[in-house]
Design goal:
heterodimer, A: mainly alpha, MetI-like fold, globular, B: alpha/beta, D-Maltodextrin-Binding Protein, domain 2
Chain lengths: ~300, ~350
């Protein structure tokens, strides 16, 4: 083993040159790199970057002070808090419950399993407005669940709880579908080995299963969170839309647009984008960290 | 091959002969025919409207298509688009190809004229009655038997009364309702009293939908709230739809809501539909359309139709937007713009 940084004189064999500096682009044995990269760049620029950069240009019509004023407006600030707070809460709620659903679907055989598996995708496939109307019909005080909740003194529809319910509903498939394939591929041998070595059920879950599915679970949570932040259709039906109370940020964007305040609307849009992006970066870093630890 | 050749020969000969003979007589006979053929080409007309006119324009469109076919022979396809008035105006500004707009309030058409310059600024003076072929007003819809004895505006701010109205920022009907409430309170106590009144009123609003139809659903179907501030026609329609579970209450005064109609000049010129679109808007003022309008619970302008349906519409004092609020431009800036009176109501 040669080491460049030891003080001792290094004698290198002729056929072993100094290690090269890592190159910016690692050469791949697969052909077609330039073409694939080119198409990827153009596609991303067209589909993602172009609209987003237009969004980022718009608010500056207001000037910096105008943007700050828009975003610190109590009504806007409260809508942003509400949207991100409940989205996070809904995503975190879906983590254990979605994991349980994925676990049940992959680890057990029972009649109706396939049907249940298909059901998981429904919130994903349903038009969001339909989901909103259906949820409102059930959770409004006239609906079966809403009436029941009212008896216990709980207000579901037209309250933050209603928003939470809608966001949990639309977020579930993201967690389940992220975790499920990893659970399916998880080698039974490893768990069995742990068991033969005397690990308890809890130990097996904590030291074998969770580290393996951790990154996938986290990516499921971040997907559910990102989707919840942008959700409009299903929420406006159940939210009640009261300023300062149950008005979500995407609705405020629509309201601004309907007042022809395009700049103000894009200011809120950019703020949401920045917060979401920050949250996703944090989750990505956590995911990489977990993945490394899982491999070690 | 040969056959067709011989057949085409006399034809071309006769055409040449016709041209050679009386050119004047020939063209005189051909021109109107060509013009007629062009007019007969089927046309499509898009009417971009607001929320509670779905049923009205469905019937008006059928009547107009029949009338137009009888008069000109042209077959028409009439399309209609409905939604919150502000949203509809924005769609037209952003490029929705409306031939005519029939919106909830003049301010929204003003925006189309100012921002997209699709029609001249003086559009409202081009048709009779401020370009409003019918009027309406804001009334209360309460549950059967009026259990909370809601009779007039002051009853709405009593503690515990649930008031349903859409968001004035997004709904034209809600803006009329807001202004109706404002004028009633301002009459006795001036602007300060009116603002205090509206603050209390909106404290009693548990759900703020984005459009009039959404609020009607919340009130009638979800059974939220005790009173719905509603377009008069929407209130009647709710009773038609949901049966006699509701009563209509006329407050002591309200506002004269004038939902205007306008030709979108740039779009009709692009589509070549100016004649049809103009005919469509004029038809709205005709006795036949006025009759349909009255049957759909909008107040007709035509004196004959108004007299015939007089008993259907209770006469109450109605203030006008120009008289009480200095026109839409001023009302919009004072009340509904960012930082306006409505925003201050929700300031914590």
């Amino acid at each position: 083993m040669t080491d460049r940084f030891t003080a001792a004189p290094v004698v290198r064999p002729l056929n072993d040159p100094w290690p090269r500096r890592p190159r910016l682009v690692e050469h791949s044995v697969l052909p077609g790199f330039k073409l694939s990269l080119g198409i990827t760049l153009v596609y991303l620029a067209l589909i993602v970057l172009l609209p987003l950069s237009l969004l980022a240009i718009r608010p500056w019509e207001l000037g910096f002070d105008g943007i700050v004023k828009t975003l610190t407006d109590p009504r806007v600030a409260s809508a942003l808090r509400l949207t991100f707070g409940i989205s996070l809460l809904a995503a975190l709620t879906n983590a254990p419950l979605g994991l349980l659903v994925a676990w049940t679907l992959t680890r057990y055989q029972f009649p109706g399993r396939r049907l249940m598996d298909a059901l998981v995708d429904l919130p994903f496939a349903l038009p969001t407005a339909v989901a909103g109307i259906a949820l409102t019909a059930i959770y409004a005080p006239t609906g079966p669940l809403g009436a029941l909740a009212e008896k216990v003194g709980l207000k579901t529809a037209y309250s933050p709880l209603g928003i939470f319910i809608a966001l949990v509903f639309i977020g579930l498939p993201f967690v389940v579908r992220s975790v499920q394939p990893v659970l399916q591929d998880l080698d039974k041998d490893v768990e069995e080995a742990a068991q033969t070595l005397g690990a308890s059920d809890l130990q097996r879950a904590a030291y074998v299963v969770i580290p393996a599915i951790g990154p996938a679970l986290l990516s499921g949570i971040s997907l559910a969170f990102a989707r919840a932040v942008g959700e409009y259709g299903s929420v406006i039906f159940i939210a009640g839309n009261l300023p300062m109370k149950t008005e979500i940020a995407p609705l405020l964007i629509v309201i601004k647009l309907e007042q022809y305040d395009y700049a103000g609307a894009s200011a809120i849009g950019c703020a949401m984008l920045a917060i979401s992006f920050g949250a996703l970066v944090v989750m990505n870093i956590a995911q990489i960290y977990l993945a490394r630890r899982g491999r070690a | 091959m040969t056959q067709s050749h011989t057949l085409s020969r006399p034809l071309s000969l006769s055409r040449r002969g016709l041209l050679a003979s009386g050119a004047g007589a020939g063209t005189a006979a051909l021109l109107p025919a060509a013009a007629l053929a062009q007019a007969l080409k089927p046309a499509t007309l898009l009417n971009v409207s607001y929320d509670p006119t779905r049923e009205l324009y469905k019937e008006v469109n059928a009547a107009f298509a029949a009338y137009w076919k009888g008069r000109t022979g042209q077959v028409l396809t009439l399309q209609q688009s409905h939604g919150g008035s502000g949203k509809q105006a924005r769609s037209v500004i952003d490029g929705l190809q409306a031939d005519v707009v029939t919106l909830a309030l003049a301010a929204d058409i003003d925006e189309i004229a100012a921002r997209a310059k699709l029609l001249p600024a003086n559009w409202q003076s081009r048709l009779p009655n401020n370009s409003t072929p019918y009027t309406s007003t804001i009334v209360f819809l309460v549950r059967k038997g009026n259990p909370w004895k809601i009779r007039d505006w002051p009853d709405l701010i009593k503690p515990g009364i649930g008031v349903i109205t859409p968001n004035p920022k997004t709904s034209g009907g809600a803006r009329w309702a807001y202004l109706a409430a404002y004028q009633a309170a301002a009459k006795t106590g001036g602007d300060a009293a009116a603002q205090a009144y509206l603050t209390k009123l909106f404290k009693n609003v548990p759900v703020l939908d984005t459009g009039a139809r959404g609020s009607t659903t919340t009130f009638a179907q979800r059974k939220i709230g005790d009173v719905l501030l509603s377009w008069e026609n929407e209130a009647f329609l709710t009773i038609d739809e949901f049966g006699p579970n509701f009563d209509i209450v006329y407050p002591s005064s309200s506002i004269l809501a004038e939902p205007p109609v306008a030709l979108v000049d740039k779009n009709v010129d692009r589509h070549g539909t100016r004649t049809v679109a103009t005919g469509y808007l004029n038809f709205l003022y005709s006795p036949r359309a006025q009759e349909i309008i009255a049957r759909h619970h909008f107040r007709p302008r035509d004196p004959a139709a108004a007299a015939k349906y007089a008993s259907a519409f209770k006469q109450i004092p109605l203030v006008t937007i120009d008289g009480a609020f200095g026109g839409w431009k001023q009302a919009q800036a004072t009340h509904f713009a960012d930082g306006g009176v409505f925003d201050r109501i929700y300031k914590p």
